[in-house]
Amino acid sequence: xxxxxxxxDLEIWQKAREICKIINVxxxxxxFRKDFSLVDxxxxxxxxxxxxxxxGFERDGNREFIQFLNISKGSIxxxxxxxxxxMDFEYISEQDFNLHKAECLALSKQIRSFSDxxxxxxxxxxxxx
Length: 129
What we know:
CATH class: Mainly Alpha
Number of domains: 1
Largest sheet: none
Mean pLDDT: 93
Structural class: mainly alpha
CATH architecture: Up-down Bundle
Radius of gyration: 16 Å
Strand content: under 5%
Helix content: over 70%
Number of helices: 4
CATH topology: de novo design (two linked rop proteins)
Low-confidence stretches: none
Distance between the termini: 20 Å
CATH superfamily: 23S rRNA-intervening sequence
């Protein structure tokens, strides 16, 4: 595994950022953008996914990082649930829904895998040197 020096180097953060950008584009669609509550909620949950990865990384300890990864995983699950609502309310097509649901599921699996790796890792973080 390559040495990660900053959270921007993490593939999971990069993918969370992409999902956040996609959500921003989706919520600008004509009918979607009028549902202010759902727009705010889905933008916040997708942003929370990337932000918690960043915050956890900056804590400099694996135990805290894992905790923040779990929060991030929850946020991407929340985003996925809100995509169902967007499809049910006919703000997005079923095709868009399926594509973005798959992206959220893939990220969730990657976060879990990375969290499992950190749990097994002998290196516990900068603050434990």
